[in-house]
Amino acid sequence: MIYDYIIVGSGLYGSVCARELTDKGYSCIVLEKRNHIGGNCYTENLRGINVHIYGGHIFHTNNKIVWDYVNRFSEFDSFKHHVIANYKGEIYSLPFNMFTFNKMW
After folding, report:
1. Secondary element (H or E) of residue 66
2. DSSP letters spanning 20-54
3. By C-alpha distance, which of 29, 57, 25, 26 is closest to 41?
4. CB 26 within 8 A of CB 34
5. What is the pLDDT of residue 88?
6. pLDDT-based confidence at 73, cuts 50/70/90?
7. Is the Cβ–Cβ distance between 3 and 10 less than 8 Å?
8. Helix (H) or strand (E) holding 85
9. Are 45 and 36 in contact (CB under 8 A)?
10. Contact 5/21 with Cβ under 8 angstroms?
11. 52 or 94: whose pLDDT is higher?
């Protein structure tokens, strides 16, 4: 079979590219060396626990169009990423900002 596009890799870029091209009527083949799709965002369910095989991944956006698009394909858990530091028993927010410096000194 002849394809309009050959896409190498099924990570985020390759997967979205293949989906969008296919939705527009093009034929695509995706070549992937791993035994799964999703690139480094791959999650495997092991005995009922979702395990991030290549390390944790957090998807965040405030763009409603992007949020609606990704929710077509997967469920997402709500998560707020807050980075803090504990220095000599005091909690400080990171990255450092004027509030952090004011609290420290």
Report:
1. helix 64-70
2. HHHHTT--EEEE-SSSSSSGGG-EEEETTEEEETT
3. 57
4. no
5. 86
6. confident
7. no
8. strand 83-87
9. no
10. yes
11. 52
